[in-house]
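ok trying this again, last paste got cut off
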Amino acid sequence: MLHLKARPNARHNQLAVAADGTITVRLHAPAQDGKANACLLAYLAEVFGVSKSSLTLLSGHTTPFKKVEIGGVTNEEFRDVLAGLVS
């Protein structure tokens, strides 16, 4: 499970992991009518190399703090992707 903060209306999509482990995803889509959530799931699917149907938004449908379940990714693959993004 991935805990993150989503920030809509960015210039481009970007996932960043701070040294303390905080995950922030900047999204190009606006926060209206579920556009940012759809953009978030599509972007995370691309980052982790899985299909969009492998992701489930568990909580945070209307807030910036979200929980996303990612299926089809081992713990090792998950850690490797995040480790490559630490800023």
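PB: full thing came through this time. The chain has a mean pLDDT of 93.
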